[in-house]
Design goal:
This protein has a single domain, classed as Metallo-dependent phosphatases (Purple Acid Phosphatase, chain A, domain 2). The chain contains 7 helices and 11 strands. The radius of gyration is 17 Å and the shape is globular.
């Protein structure tokens, strides 16, 4: 495996390496393939302080949301490598729907929840009060305890991005998991380099203030992992 590193817009302390994975959307076989590629990279390029980070949107649209959640909820997917899992807007919608919030139930079905519920053995056309019983408590506990952000070095990791002009500590939950235009088109210096998913593009996007790694795996694209170390970045794909 040959990696092509390029200059990154942010930095990490020497000896630290972060593997950040974009939107999975039920593509469990792709996620397994990418985890294997990361393990291979670590075998060939050992690192004393690696971190595996997933940027959210594990569920909906793809064929195996249950498989993805089970893989991540079961502990660190790569033995010896700590992991951090962030909340995406699709997890939030699923949580709201299974908590009985009426509008969210409809929203979840529209946004790919039919496929997700079916992966847990549920029937989207059955009475809605039956839906929660198909999702194990351990899986719901995992979803409800996902982090909103992770910060290291000069990087901030968030599912969707941040609102320009607002301090990091004052960012709203909704913006962190769902913002688009105001963030994507901003040329502002955020004070951090934001690594995010949420908005699919054919290839990873590197700007002076952000790195976008949702490459549309569920839409026929690739699942992307950004490898961040010191002042450089490379990508793995599955």
């Amino acid at each position: 495996m040959s990696l092509e590193f390029t200059k990154a817009p942010g930095t990490l302390p020497a000896g630290r390496r972060i593997y950040a994975i974009g939107d999975v959307h039920g593509c469990d076989s792709r996620l397994a393939e990418l985890h294997a590629a990361i393990a291979d990279d670590l075998a060939h390029r050992p690192c004393g302080a690696p971190l595996l980070l997933h940027l959210g949107d594990y569920v909906d649209r793809g064929p195996d949301s249950r498989g993805v959640v089970a893989r991540l909820a079961g502990g660190d997917p790569l033995p010896g490598v700590p992991s951090v899992n962030l909340l995406g807007n699709h997890e939030q919608t699923m949580i709201d729907a299974l908590s009985g919030l009426g509008a969210s139930m409809t929203d979840w079905m529209i946004q790919g929840g039919r496929e997700a519920l079916q992966s847990w053995g549920g029937d989207p056309d059955a009475p809605r009060p039956t839906w929660p019983g198909h999702v194990p408590d351990a899986h719901m506990g995992f979803l409800k305890n996902l982090a909103l952000t992770h910060r290291e070095g000069s990087y901030l990791f968030a599912h969707a991005g941040i609102r320009p002009g607002i301090a990091i500590e004052d960012q709203t939950r909704q913006d962190l998991i769902s913002i688009r235009q105001a963030f994507l088109y901003s040329e502002a210096d955020f004070g951090v380099t934001v690594v995010h998913g949420h908005t699919p593009k054919q290839d990873p996007v590197i700007k002076h203030n952000r790195i976008g790694i949702d490459t549309g795996a569920v839409y026929g694209g690739r699942l992307t992992c950004a490898i961040l170390e010191t002042d450089r970045v490379a990508f793995l794909f599955a």
